[in-house]
């Protein structure tokens, strides 16, 4: 396994800057997930590491070796694409070993590598089948196996589960995590699916517009987002944003007011010191909101929609003109039109600057 170091990377397509002065360090043996919406540059970054795209600036190092202009076949990488890209006339064994045979590797070594990968991916009984005789999940396992037999220093995954149904995605996601634990190899994984990112990653890099907005452990990025984009991209439903103003700052709290709502936000959730009465945005996760009977001590709201989710319910509220989602677990959830009170866990809230959208 090897580390990956990217410095001041720039990629242009025509007049557009897809990546600009991007820096990224991937530690040895970690599972880094590049997460972001379509068009944010995450696949471009992955393809640059693989050598499939020529870069316009910067450098890429794998295991301390500068591979910026090295051919893909010589970078010691294994890559799994969104498309299975299997040879339809070859069986599973020959699909997995094709690259090794072309490279002239001895037969015994090829057999050893295929046997090892097929056992890891539970493909032992399928080695003589052709792709047309396999399910979508089995085909993707073969594609992963084809990368594994290379015994590369770094494995790259470009949205490999996006073509599978929900059940298969869950199964393969679990198998990929177990595979990483077994191999301990450096893996870089691209996805727009936040569930994949949160469950697979040792660290998540959230991207937007060709730049990394925040990088950190999944729990850290979720609980302490660097800005409103990261806060809104992670979570389903995403973080609630309530516009208001800052009031008195004490030794431990800062007052936040939005209409009839007033609360004290602890300093742990408040990093900056804007002027008194400055505008701010309060960010609260749906699971940190509790619905209570309406009363003078709680923010009044009206239920506009209830979404049953099986294990819980998502209740959408109109809170004095601001739309708020609450995630609750109740045998008797409120109904549309009900008046409720809103209680927020402000110790786990965030405050943002409405202009820069950075967390205060």
Automatic annotation (TrEMBL):
<dbReference type="GO" id="GO:0055052">
    <property type="term" value="C:ATP-binding cassette (ABC) transporter complex, substrate-binding subunit-containing"/>
</dbReference>
<keyword id="KW-1003">Cell membrane</keyword>
<dbReference type="InterPro" id="IPR027417">
    <property type="entry name" value="P-loop_NTPase"/>
</dbReference>
<dbReference type="InterPro" id="IPR008995">
    <property type="entry name" value="Mo/tungstate-bd_C_term_dom"/>
</dbReference>
<dbReference type="GO" id="GO:0008643">
    <property type="term" value="P:carbohydrate transport"/>
</dbReference>
<dbReference type="InterPro" id="IPR013611">
    <property type="entry name" value="Transp-assoc_OB_typ2"/>
</dbReference>
<dbReference type="GO" id="GO:0016887">
    <property type="term" value="F:ATP hydrolysis activity"/>
</dbReference>
<dbReference type="InterPro" id="IPR003593">
    <property type="entry name" value="AAA+_ATPase"/>
</dbReference>
<keyword id="KW-0547">Nucleotide-binding</keyword>
<feature type="domain" description="ABC transporter">
    <location>
        <begin position="4"/>
        <end position="234"/>
    </location>
</feature>
<keyword id="KW-0067">ATP-binding</keyword>
<dbReference type="Pfam" id="PF08402">
    <property type="entry name" value="TOBE_2"/>
</dbReference>
<dbReference type="InterPro" id="IPR012340">
    <property type="entry name" value="NA-bd_OB-fold"/>
</dbReference>
<keyword id="KW-0472">Membrane</keyword>
<keyword id="KW-0813">Transport</keyword>
<dbReference type="Pfam" id="PF00005">
    <property type="entry name" value="ABC_tran"/>
</dbReference>
<dbReference type="InterPro" id="IPR047641">
    <property type="entry name" value="ABC_transpr_MalK/UgpC-like"/>
</dbReference>
<dbReference type="InterPro" id="IPR015855">
    <property type="entry name" value="ABC_transpr_MalK-like"/>
</dbReference>
<protein>
    <submittedName>
        <fullName>ABC transporter ATP-binding protein</fullName>
    </submittedName>
</protein>
<dbReference type="GO" id="GO:0140359">
    <property type="term" value="F:ABC-type transporter activity"/>
</dbReference>
<dbReference type="InterPro" id="IPR003439">
    <property type="entry name" value="ABC_transporter-like_ATP-bd"/>
</dbReference>
<dbReference type="GO" id="GO:0005524">
    <property type="term" value="F:ATP binding"/>
</dbReference>
<dbReference type="InterPro" id="IPR017871">
    <property type="entry name" value="ABC_transporter-like_CS"/>
</dbReference>
């Amino acid at each position: 396994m090897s580390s990956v170091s990217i410095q001041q990377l720039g990629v242009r397509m025509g007049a557009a800057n897809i990546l600009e002065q991007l820096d990224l360090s991937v530690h040895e043996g970690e599972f880094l997930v590049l997460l972001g919406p379509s068009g944010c540059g995450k696949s471009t970054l992955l393809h640059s590491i693989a050598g499939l795209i020529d870069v316009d600036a910067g450098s890429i190092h794998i295991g301390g070796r500068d591979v910026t202009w090295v051919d893909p076949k010589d970078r010691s990488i294994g890559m799994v694409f969104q498309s299975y890209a299997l040879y339809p006339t070859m069986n599973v064994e020959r699909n997995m070993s094709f690259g090794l045979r072309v490279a002239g590797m001895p037969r015994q070594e090829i057999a050893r590598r295929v046997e090892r990968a097929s056992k890891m991916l539970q493909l032992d009984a399928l080695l003589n089948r052709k792709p047309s005789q396999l399910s979508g999940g089995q085909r993707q396992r073969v594609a992963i196996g084809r990368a594994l037999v290379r015994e590369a220093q770094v494995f790259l995954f470009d949205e490999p589960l996006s073509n599978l149904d929900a059940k298969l995605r869950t199964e393969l996601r679990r198998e990929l995590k177990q595979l990483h634990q077994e191999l301990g190899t450096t893996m870089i994984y691209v996805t727009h699916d936040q569930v994949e990112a949160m469950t697979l990653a040792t660290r998540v890099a959230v991207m937007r517009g060709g730049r990394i907005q925040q990088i950190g452990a999944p729990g850290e990025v979720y609980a302490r987002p660097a800005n409103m984009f990261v806060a809104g991209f992670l979570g389903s439903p995403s973080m609630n944003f309530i516009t208001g103003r800052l009031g008195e700052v004490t030794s431990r709290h800062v007052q936040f007011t939005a209409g009839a709502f007033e609360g004290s936000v602890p300093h742990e959730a408040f990093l900056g010191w804007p002027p008194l009465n400055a505008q701010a945005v309060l960010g609260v996760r749906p699971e940190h909101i509790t619905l209570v009977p309406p009363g003078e001590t709680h923010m009044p709201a009206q239920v506009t929609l209830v979404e049953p989710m099986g294990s819980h319910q998502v209740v959408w509220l109109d809170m004095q003109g601001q739309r708020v989602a609450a995630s609750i677990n109740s045998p008797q959830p409120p109904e549309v039109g009900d008046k409720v009170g809103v209680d927020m866990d402000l110790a786990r809230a965030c405050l943002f600057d409405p202009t820069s959208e950075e967390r205060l």
